[in-house]
Design goal:
The chain has helices spanning about 5-15, 20-35, 45-55, 90-100, 105-110, 135-150, 165-180, 185, 195-210, 220-225, 230-245, 255, 260-265, 280-290, 305-325, 330, and strands spanning about 65-70, 115-120, 155-165, 250, 275. The protein has about 325 residues and is of the alpha/beta class. Helix 5 (about 105-110) runs parallel beside helix 15 (about 305-325). The N and C termini lie far apart (about 55 Å). Bound molecules: nicotinate mononucleotide (NCN) and 5,6-dimethylbenzimidazole. It comes from Sphingomonas aerolata. It is an enzyme of class 2 (transferase). Catalyzes the synthesis of alpha-ribazole-5'-phosphate from nicotinate mononucleotide (NAMN) and 5,6-dimethylbenzimidazole (DMB).
């Protein structure tokens, strides 16, 4: 099924984002007060359980089927020497994901996440956005729908992650356009570029935003002109998950930047999202503040590929398990008086 057959369909979805189920949230909050613990003593686990209840629309959220969708794309701006690694690594890492040898394979296994890998036209990198739009409208719509398609019926939680050499430059451009500031404020080492590499990244971000400035008027246009296919797919997956009532765990700087153009125009897009962690990429802290998301974890990770979000899923799983498995005061015969 094509959830977003046209740009207008995508924009209509953004105008009508569904809200959480307040009755389910209320029932879950009440249950939290009845469980055998002092009120509030499970801290953020309590909020997570209520959050999951609200988006799933059930007092006792399920954790039977959780999926990590990892999108991969290649970037034309990589020709400017903005990454510490060659573009060929993107496809090689996708092979590694498929063979089970990457960090995300081990981390997804550890928390019971099924893994879905979508590599998008790796042999045809997006165009260099310093000279023209990264994608045409058809390619951008196709990527949105590749993302939307990962939201299959029956999912209880979706993790979004990415792999794409050069994509931290694209992410910085999306952040600059969405939230202002300076290119230097959003650019960081990514895979580990040196000071000269950071200067090249800043120049590329400035050139890209300068080149497209007048045309970056909608989330779609911003994603199309300075985004990348894996980034657009994440945006499509996050919006599709919202329409399906599936809570989302965002990974690092690039995954979070994928929704920045949408969030700048429609701040409510983050309501069904959890920031799994705050990565070591310096722009991520600033971006999460702009998105008004408090990260679950701060582990100094900067890998991408959904890895930090996968670790955070362990915490969310624990929150749901406590909410579902604990006895109430009445059941346990524990007297509060
Ligand atoms: O998730 C993050 O915050 C993160 C921070 C730095 C790098 N990465 C990963 O590294 C790649 C982007 O870095 P770069 O230097 O190639 O732009 C891409 O494959 C990301 O998954 C990811
Ligand atoms: C090896 C490698 C693995 C990655 N996983 C996500 N981004 C990555 C970038 C590199 C370079």
């Amino acid at each position: 099924m094509t959830l977003f057959p046209t740009v207008a369909a995508f924009e209509a979805a953004l105008e009508a984002l569904p809200a959480a189920d307040e009755a389910a949230r209320g029932a879950a909050s009440l249950r939290q007060t009845q469980l055998t613990k002092p009120p509030g003593s499970l801290g953020r686990l309590e909020d997570l359980a209520v959050f999951m209840a609200g988006w799933q629309g059930r007092e006792r959220p399920r954790f039977e089927r959780a999926r990590a969708a990892i999108f991969a794309g290649n970037h034309g701006v990589a020709v400017h020497g903005v990454s510490a690694f060659p573009v060929s690594v993107t496809a090689q890492m996708v092979d590694n994901f498929r063979r089970g040898g990457a960090a995300i394979n081990a981390l997804a296994d550890a928390v019971g996440l099924e893994l879905f890998i979508a590599d998008i036209d790796l042999e045809t990198p997006t165009a260099d956005f310093t000279t023209g739009p990264a994608m045409d409208e058809a390619a951008c719509l196709a990527a949105l729908n590749i993302g939307a398609d990962v939201v299959v019926p029956g999912l209880d939680l979706l993790v979004v992650g990415e792999m794409g050499i050069g994509n931290s430059t694209s992410a910085a451009a999306l952040c600059l356009r969405s939230y202002g500031g300076t290119a230097a404020g959003w650019v960081g080492p990514g895979t580990g570029v040196d000071v000269a590499g950071i200067a090249r990244k800043i120049a590329v971000v400035e050139a890209g935003i300068g080149r497209h400035d007048d045309f970056l008027r909608t989330p779609f246009e911003t994603l199309r002109r300075v985004g990348g296919r894996e980034i657009v797919a994440i945006a499509g997956a996050v919006v599709a998950a919202r329409l399906a009532g599936v809570p989302v765990v965002l990974d690092g700087f690039i995954s979070s930047a994928a929704i920045a153009p949408i969030a700048a125009a429609y701040p409510g897009i983050t309501e069904h999202c959890i920031a799994g962690h705050c990565s070591a990429e310096p722009g991520h802290e600033r971006l999460l503040a702009a998105l008004k998301l408090e990260p679950l974890l701060r582990l100094g990770m900067r890998l991408g590929e959904g890895s930090g979000a996968a670790v955070a899923v362990g915490v969310i799983r624990s929150a749901v398990a406590a909410h579902d498995g604990m006895a109430t005061f009445a059941e346990a015969g524990v007297s509060v008086a």
